């Protein structure tokens, strides 16, 4: 199914710019401050993309999904031809707009298709297949960059080839039959006929807080784990890289083994299991023997993958016809977690990486509070 490839396209292309900072600095003659500003443009672009998806509520998701592919291809072309720092920042902002539109438009269309086919119970399994594509993209992109650099291929050609790939995918989407959208009821007082506005729904804000807790436990947490492995445990760079691979392996397990379990249990139960399990695993990562840390890494990412799968499905089901606006609220909450990541970075600078690991270990316990409120709301 072509729509299931949206996350593969997103992950395989989204990795390129952050991994090419040194190339940008050398060719565009920019400093680290300008290069780091790309992450600000990513955030701004993500908000713009979410607004576009929210505006598509009640309409076919085909224009916003194909538009996402177009923006992504344009962004990669801008980056390939960049001659100044502002062009790099424009390209990274556009790629965030495009990838958000592409992924969310495609996933909402997939959800609508399943619901209209009477297959809503298969949503977790189908989303897991798409997430496996994301893992494949995560693996492919660094391999391609490593191979092309070893072969002496200029970075601009890599971005150009990626742009062509996305154009081809966008053309493929043109020929895909998108489902009709679920009817979008007007916002109004909750009187049994008209649902409450998105911004007043406790469920949506709880899903947002769940995303706020989970977001720092992915790449941000892994970066601290790897820093601890090298600076505190004394591991070599190769050993640390192998540890990173263990975290990727957990995602593969989550999206192949857990979908049926996630579909059977309610989200509150899933959050309790994940919160307690991740807390225990992260304590092991902080103080356990070195040989046990890779196994803890696999367990950590398996639990996190299962949680993300449950969150994805719950957000997509929460408000039929208003999926875009629901995602907008949830992702704004998720984005604010960058402040927590920054504070934990300051803690690592002042008290050491190991102190930051302990602070991260407390975060999953926040899922227990979310679970308790979810049970009360539902």
Please write out the topology.
Elements: H1 6-14, H2 21-28, H3 32-36, H4 38-55, H5 62-80, H6 85-116, H7 123-150, H8 155-174, H9 202-214, H10 219-231, H11 237-257, H12 259-264, H13 267-287, H14 293-318, H15 323-351, H16 353-362, H17 366-377
Helix pairs in contact: 1-6, 1-7, 4-6, 4-15, 5-6, 5-8, 7-11, 7-14, 9-14, 9-15, 9-17, 10-11, 10-16, 11-14, 13-14, 13-16, 13-17, 14-15, 15-16
Low-pLDDT runs: none
SS content category = mainly alpha
Q: What's the total count of β strands?
A: 0
What is the average per-residue confidence, as pLDDT, rounded to a whole number?
A: 90
Q: What's the alpha carbon Rg, rounded to whole Å?
A: 21 Å
**Biggest pleated-sheet summary:** none
Please report the number of helical segments: 17
> H/E order of the elements?
HHHHHHHHHHHHHHHHH
- Alpha carbon gap, first and last residue: 33 Å
State the helicity in percent bands: over 70%
Shape: globular
Percent strand: under 5%
What does this structure look like?
There is one protein chain. With 378 residues, the protein is mostly helical. Helices cover 77% and strands 0% of the residues. It has helices at residues 6-14, 21-28, 32-36, 38-55, 62-80, 85-116, 123-150, 155-174, 202-214, 219-231, 237-257, 259-264, 267-287, 293-318, 323-351, 353-362, 366-377. The two termini are 33 Å apart. The mean pLDDT is 90.
